[in-house]
Amino acid sequence: MAHYAQLDENNIVVTVIAASGDDLEAALQTETGFIWRRTSYNTHANEHLLGGTPYRYNYAGIGYTFDADYGSDGAFISPSPYPSWKLSNLDATWKAPKPYPTNGLVYEWDESVGDWVERN
Fold first, then answer.
1. Are 75 and 109 within one domain?
2. Distance from C-alpha of 76 to C-alpha of 72, rounded to nearest angstrom
3. Maximum Cα–Cα distance for the chain, whole Å?
4. Full DSSP string of 31-52
5. Which of 5, 76, 105, 118 fits as disulfide partner to 13, beta carbons 3.0 to 4.6 Å?
6. Are residues 68 and 101 in the same domain?
7. Is the pTM of this model over 0.85?
8. Which residues span the domain enclosing 106?
């Protein structure tokens, strides 16, 4: 089963479907009049979770942007979680300006202070 993301006029994902067939982008566009791009359910941060070849960096989600110029096949990029975070060119995921603490406690990002704060 393959998955396909429907894009709006700004290349924003508006829906994702599962369909039988490996190369249905053109057929779906002809049938619906919308632009479709295949996405890999098992790809996240440019790694295939089952050891296969990653495809388009991330599995598409509603609200993601498809950037056709990113990598060789384009990339699905999630919305930025915070204005201060930067998009990684290596894996098309958002990175905080400071690394997540590794002391075993649970933290959340606080944009107002620009740092991780311990979660109660």
1. no
2. 12
3. 53
4. HHSSEEEEE-TTEETTEETTSS
5. 5
6. no
7. yes
8. 82-120
CA dihedral angle for residue 77, residue 81, residue 11, residue 88, rounded to 10 degrees? -30
Are 45 and 86 within one domain? Answer: no
Q: Could you tell me if 67 and 101 lie in one domain?
A: no
CA 45 to chain centre: 8
Summarize pLDDT for 55-102 with one digit per residue, the tens.
Answer: 999 999 999 999 999 989 999 999 999 999 999 999 999 999 999 999
- Cα–Cα distance measured from residue 77 to residue 18, given in angstroms and rounded to the nearest whole number: 19
Domain identity same for 64 and 114: no
Q: Cβ of 44: how many Cβ atoms within 10 Å?
A: 16
Q: Count the domains in the chain.
A: 2
- Quick one: 60 and 89 in the same domain? no
Residue 13 CB-density burial (10 A; 0-12 exposed, 13-18 middle, 19+ buried) = buried
